[in-house]
Amino acid sequence: MKAIQDKYGVPQELASCHTAIVEGYVVEGHVPVDDIKKLLQTKPKIIGIAVPAMPIGTPGMEMGDEKEAYDVMSFDRENHFQIFNSYKGN
Hints:
By secondary structure, this protein is an alpha+beta fold.
């Protein structure tokens, strides 16, 4: 995974367990599908979006009604990070 993440410019701080390339963008970790759709519709000038770690309640990490708060982060070639979307926990 590290070699793929390095190849596509995923910052170590945002690295997770899954890396996908979707229409030229990196999607790292358990990113909700609505955020991927927004990325593809808006086409911002970034490398990609990421959900670091594996927060409970993200796609693939469901545990009943339990949800942790987390941010979907965007990142660019200069390693600037920005919140792309935020989710509240319960």
